[in-house]
Amino acid sequence: MADFIRARSAEQKEQRLNEIKGAVRRQFAERPYHEITLTTIAEELGWSRANLYKYVSTKEEVFLLLAADECRAYFDALLAALPEGCGLSPATIAEVWAGIANAHQEYFRLGDLLSTIIETNVGVERLAEFKRCYYDCVGTMRERLPQIADIAPERVEPLLLAIYYHAVGLVSTCWKNPLVTEALGVIGVERPAIDFRIEMGDFIGMCLEHYLRS
């Protein structure tokens, strides 16, 4: 087991949390959620579970931290790609947005677990911090989107949620769960190929038509 040195400063604690998130991110890319445990996380890091408990109490806390990182990255990418005064048409906005969604599928894959599993097994302080991050991002989008498209500020969050929940459902269908693949093989059903980006582009285009002022 690798030598473990407990963090003695805020910077060192942040470094330890980044190491933990990195381990979970790698595991989540390769295996289903239920196969990831505090034990598998500690083993990858070369830590004991007792040392891991110095930073997180449950694996859901780690996944909530990952969700916050992915949330910020997704919205930062949207804001960078849709600058104030860009003058893009709704069709182009939909295409750009779909590309960003495609590049941030991890955000939506985490969303498939967020409300039903992750948010039910974390402390209120960590959850409040995550919610603050999300609503800060929504607030920024509420200011930005009306500057580049004919949409009322109060309709921005419903638009964001419609796109988010569709992406969450779509990405879970695209994710190759080995158990689902095996079950479909047993009943002789071939899973259809789905292009996440194309499907999202079509859906975002429809949402813009609905939420933009006529």
- The secondary-structure class comes to mainly alpha
Please count the helical segments: 10
pLDDT below 50 for ≥5 consecutive residues: which ranges? none
Shape: globular
Question: How does this model look, in words?
Answer:
The model has no long low-confidence stretch (mean pLDDT 91). The chain is mainly alpha-helical. It is globular, with a radius of gyration of 20 Å. It contains 10 helices and no strands.
Task: Tell me briefly what this model is.
It is built from ten helices and no strands. The chain has helices at residues 10-28, 38-45, 49-52, 59-81, 90-103, 105-114, 124-148, 156-174, 178-186, 196-211.
Keywords:
214 residues; 0% strand; globular
SSE blueprint:
Blueprint: H1 10-28, H2 38-45, H3 49-52, H4 59-81, H5 90-103, H6 105-114, H7 124-148, H8 156-174, H9 178-186, H10 196-211
Helix pairs in contact: 1-2, 1-4, 4-5, 4-6, 4-7, 5-10, 6-8, 8-10
